[in-house]
Amino acid sequence: MQDNDLRLDGNAAGGLLNEIFRFEMTAAEATCGGCGTMRPIGELMLYQHGMGAILRCAECDTALMRITYIRGCYSLDLSGMTYLRITSETH
Amino acid sequence: MIKGMAQQLKWQLGTVVEIREETPTAKSLILDLLDWTTHVAGQHVDVRLTAEDGYQAQRSYSIASPPGDKNLMLTVERLDDGEVSPYLTDGLGVGDRIELRGPIGGYFVWDPRNPGTNGHPLFLAAGGSGIAPLMSMIRHRASTGNKVPTRLLYSSRSYEEVIYREELDRLSAHDPTLRVIHTLTRRRPPNWMGYGRRIDRAMLADTAWRPEEKPLAFTCGPTAFVETVATHLGESGYEPGRIKTERFGPTGG
Predict the structure, then answer these.
(1) C-beta atoms of A5 and B102 within 8 A
(2) Is position A91 within any domain?
(3) Which of B79, B85, B114, B234 shows a CA-CA span of 20 to 30 A to B161?
(4) What domains are defined for chain B?
């Protein structure tokens, strides 16, 4: 099985992101610091691992968000993202 | 819709009230939840299992029931090497409880109240159990009498593996605005008249609405399936923001 086969998308990160941001985040729009593409988080590529998740740009593979949760602490590396727009409407 | 309110989702217990065998490998769990605000078609829940030693495994499952239903339906395909799905399909009985949170998602949703949605033809493309969130949309459409022209292109391995087959037959037989097109990729019954191959550009050209009709497309299934559909629809002229995608990976877990 190739790595690509294990890939999900940002939709599956909605629950985790809600723990941190409290808003509905899959429709939030993020701009990639690598190529400038702006997409809803639901369209980013998601790689999950034991301690967290990485969200990457579907166009250029830049990591927009690296999230870990270890011993009660969320750590976010957002260096690959230049802009995040959250709409404050939740269903 | 609640405006301007952030809200943290809470884990809660859902009680299994019914189990339906959909296909030899997929089952639907009908769950009763005490604290449930209605969902929007296309949303999912996170399901969390905890082992006796405290080890936890978590997966996302799309909601297959329509908004407004009293109970929640999740359809789970059994994957032999999965961590979560074998328990959900084989280890659960009526009366058992599982832990879940939701509803989750605001991107992969069909909500006729949203701008640019109602009145626009719907093109739905499902691969295997990727039918679940699209079924919520089809059921929502049926339960509210919404007549937006809708086509479902549904890829399954074999006739026996078509989830919700009878319900789809029934709904499309009674509703001329709903068309269901099947393709069977591995085995086909004798005299099968439908498609018999993986979804490709020609099949999408034959079945999808033309871009000039201002359609809205949703595709859910394995990663490769979703990317094939999204690429070909995009190349045919669909606007990127009008092709909504959800990948469940090869395994879903």
Answers:
(1) no
(2) no
(3) B234
(4) 12-104 (2.40.30.10), 122-247 (3.40.50.80)
A4 has a pLDDT exceeding 60:
no
Å from B25 to nearest chain A CA?
21
Q: Complex ipTM, two decimals?
A: 0.91
Give the 3-state secondary structure of residue A62. coil
Handedness of CA B139, B201, B106, B97 (dihedral sign): positive
Q: Out of B7, B106, B245, whose CB is closest to A22?
A: B7
- Predicted TM-score (pTM) of the model is 0.94
The answer to whether residue A44 is domain-embedded is yes
- Residue A51's pLDDT band (boundaries 50, 70, 90)? confident
> Cβ–Cβ of B2/A41 closer than 8 Å?
no
